Amino acid sequence: MWKRHFSPSRDHAPRTSRERKSPVRLAVRLHLVAHRLSAMPVVGWPLAKSVYWLSKVLTNSDIDPRANIHPSVSIPHATGVVIGETAVVGPRSVIMSGVVVGARSWDAHDRHANIGADVFIGSGAVVLGSVRIGDGARIGANSVVLGDVDPGVTVIGSPARPLAPLEAD
What we know:
By secondary structure, the chain is α/β, with parallel strands linked by helices. The protein is built from four helices and 14 strands. The two termini are 29 Å apart. Mean pLDDT is 85; it is low at 1-8.
């Protein structure tokens, strides 16, 4: 019974180029357009804000046009995702629904998180402040991250703490 419900054929990850261009990637694609427009002088910012609002309406996500998000980032369910303006998200990271990457101060530079490559952020997680999330880290659902996360570490809870490694018998 488990094999029938959890087989690789039911995996939601895109396998073909056509699937990679599906509406699932719409939030990231619209953000990339808005991000490029925001760098243009004079008319760029109003156009970027227009694309930003279109993205907000279509995907129900709030991703600031000034945030640096790698094109290979995956947001399978963009509903409720909020990413602040100074956030940096590395390649091949996965951000699930309801994730907030927010600020804890009004500092002009580096208020939001710097998320490394191959990071998984579970549904409802909150990453606040100028923290660094190391490559390959995993953040559990509904965790609240207020400090740095080392590479390859899984953190869970509120506030987030590293998960103890399983003991080998």
